[in-house]
Amino acid sequence: MTLAEPRLETTPDPEGPESGGRTATGTERGAAQPAGSDAGPGTGSAATPGTGPAADSEAASRSGAAIEDPGTPDRNSGAPTARPARWPTWRRDLAVYAFFLVAAFWVTSQIWLDPAGRVASLYSSDPAQVQYFLAHSVRVVLHGEFPFFTDRLNYPDGVNLMANTAILGLGIPMVPLTLLFGPAVSFVTLVTLGLAGTASAWYYVISRHLVKAPVAAIVGGWFCGFSPALLSHANWHPNIISQFLLPFIVWRVMVLTRSTRVIRDGVILALLVSYQAFINEEILLFTAMACGIFLFAVVVQQPGRWRAAWRPLAGGLAVCAVLAGALLAYPLLVQFAGRQAYHGLSDAVRDYGNDLAAFFVPGSTTLGGNQRANLDLAPNYSEENAFFGWSLALLTVAIVVWLRREVIIRALAVTGLLFAVLSLGERISWWNRGAFWGPWDVLVKAPLLDAVVPTRFGLITTVVIGLLLALATDRAWALEIAERRTLRTVVAAALAIALVPILPLPLREIGRPPVPTFITSGQWRPFVGPEQTLVPVPIPAMGHTNGMRWAASTNLDFKIPGGYFLAPRNGNTGDPGRFGGRPSGLSAVLDDVAKTGRPATLTDRQRRRAMDELRHWRAAILVLPVRQDNVEALHRTVDQIAGPAQRRADVWVWDVRPLTDRTAG
């Protein structure tokens, strides 16, 4: 099966008309193969590619000329009835891309009101982490810092950035914008472009290589880019929603099955894979698994295809493996064997899975969604990786039943169903009741898969549904019946019933504390030396990431201890992963005070341990914003360790340099 030959490869089995499809004619088969394509011999095309009326129309469209549609013959006179000229392809494409971009601005509109002052209403740690990584990209470009590891976070142990999705593939292109407007603006820009870019990329590939009807490609691209799953991740994970390379990776894998230029096609795939690795490796792994399962499902149905496809596929993948392996060898060595590498995810996310009911209710960020009702159906609101709603779930089943004779439909159905099952995690439940064994309980122990968040397998099911919607719309649009207008009205109504409940709403945002003037004005600089740290109060950790935002606002000009990231437990390279660095007694005390609002009464032993930790961090100053929640309790607690604070601008400052100097007794 190749995406580049939709009419030839997706025709129904010649077993009867009940499939609801139609058999491609020789002319259609020839027109379906675009001129200059990579198809080689053995495609079975009945006409020479790039010739005939369809190719002429395509050439006219690409040149910018409007295409005059002769229309259908008049029933009385037999003369064709004139239809309005269609838009050239490039104009239609620009209009679609603009529509997707406007939709993305609508979704992110609440953040655009004040990028630095607004954040997701829940789980604000991830945006702060992404902004920190964006600032790291600035230092890579301007200061030549090592891209895959930093000790400016979690000082002195540092953080393995290759093991933490540092989004270098997104951050480095955004460096000019980050320098001009700051990492908060870069963050919301990435979210906006991630949604619009993913939808546009899928539209492009679907329209060129899978369907003929433009409306079908628009439907497929829209769902792949603005599905409930991507809307869920949009507030927190621009690396996950930036899937604009995936449709091209899938397309190039399919091209390899019939390639006559194996080296060239393998190189192209290797470059795409290598770049995607610097955006998100987990999504890349999912895509590779999905391509393998899809191709296997095709070959099982039509074993004869394997004889023609295995040589170019194997050769192209070998070229891809060699080149991508060479490009990624050192980064992957750092990731899996370098300093602060870890093996396996934190127990906190290892068993993240979807509830079965999550496939039948709308997402929290959609028109028909109910955030409270969805509370126990996903690990949290940033991981709603299904949430299609009953109407879309039923429509998907109906599409598979209707077009079941088509090889591509059956292969997609198998792929989507398998990933849906894997997304349920180690235990399967229904409306948070029951806990039956799931297959992920075995697979979670496999290499590479032990670092996967299982609920995210639902992202592949999402793409499969988008492709099924596109194919079904295309098939319905092409049916030759007398009441074609009525049929298209019915199709549009069915799509509306399925998609309107999951239309996107603007992401929910709340205000967040501004970066203190003490930081933005540079008043901290006389206190902190190059090998010293500025210690925010509370200590940076999951749930306390404002200090990471402070550092990001200065392009990481000062180092901080702690932070929000993945690292080996207890700081021992090779251990299982956990969120944050090695445990800290001072961090735990201040975290408890920040939550309860009650000052701690420290023992002599706790004070000595706190001073030892400050010396280990080479702390220069501790900084507490005067508008911090429970500021008085935190102030009184830190006073017991470092003595009275000084008021500087909008913060309290404890100068601990005399206490942490390693030459002091």
Automatic annotation (TrEMBL):
The keyword Membrane applies. Residues 20-57 have a biased composition (Low complexity). Residues 1-10 have a biased composition (Basic and acidic residues). The keyword Iron does not apply. Residues 1-85 are annotated as: Disordered. Residues 102-437 form the DUF6311 domain. Keywords: Membrane, Transmembrane, Transmembrane helix. The chain crosses the membrane at residues 94-113, 187-206, 213-230, 236-255, 262-278, 284-301, 313-333, 387-404, 411-431, 451-473, 485-507. This is DUF6311 domain-containing protein. It comes from Plantactinospora alkalitolerans.
